[in-house]
Amino acid sequence: MRVFSTSYTFDYSWDEVSTGNWRKYCPWNKSSSHVIAVDTLSRHVDSSTGILCTERLITCHQPAPAFVTSLLRGQCTTYSYEKSYVDPLDKKVTMCSSNMTWNNLISVRETVIYEPDLSASEPSHQRTKFEQEARIVALCGGWQRMKVKIEEASLERFRENAKRGREGFEAVLEMSRRVFGEEREREAQRRGEAEA
């Protein structure tokens, strides 16, 4: 088993990050061109907790390492299942995902958590902590060399994608702040003109 773990602090409020999370794979994110589709399978609010629960299917097109592609006959379209929980009271987003494609060969279980960064020196400067962990296990039985090679290649790919994903999400957050700020300004201007 290989474990990938990282943390980061976004210079955006939890409200911005938790809302922007739904736009993570939009055209503003130039780093997510490998994501072909994001389909919402179900979404509901738990009436007793107020937690928004969402299940999504994420479809990607991304070449695997050559030795893996030869085993899988060139299959490059992959599917992941994601379940997320948005807790507006505790201000916590938890996302759990797992691979559906090649799951007889490898298991990838990822957990992402977004929470307010309470260590900010100025209360008015809100930031959000991001924590990500992935557990990667090759399921090759007794083929230890193949197992290690698959896990190492998957870990490296995951590391590269995590870095690109964070950079792309930063771009989405920046664009969201600008676009929605401009919209708020236009709305205030319309209200001012209507009152005049």
Describe the SSE topology.
Elements: E1 2-10, H1 14-20, E2 35-45, E3 52-61, H2 66-71, E4 77-87, E5 92-99, E6 106-116, E7 128-138, H3 144-195
Antiparallel strand pairs: 1-7, 2-3, 3-4, 4-5, 5-6, 6-7
What's the quick description here?
33% of the residues lie in helices and 36% in strands.
Give a structural overview.
This protein is of the alpha+beta class and 196 residues long. It contains three helices and seven strands; from the N terminus they run βαββαββββα. It has a seven-stranded antiparallel β-sheet with strand order 1-7-6-5-4-3-2. A hairpin with a 4-residue loop joins strand 4 (77-87) and strand 5. It starts with a strand and ends with a helix.
Structural class: alpha+beta
Helix content: 25-40%
Q: Enumerate how many helices there are, as a single number.
A: 3
Overall body shape: elongated
From N to C, what is the helix and strand string? EHEEHEEEEH
Number of strands: 7
Unreliable residue stretches: none
Give a quick account of the main beta sheet: strands, pairing sense, barrel closure. 7 strands, antiparallel
The strand order across the widest sheet is 1-7-6-5-4-3-2
Provide key terms for this protein.
alpha+beta; 36% strand
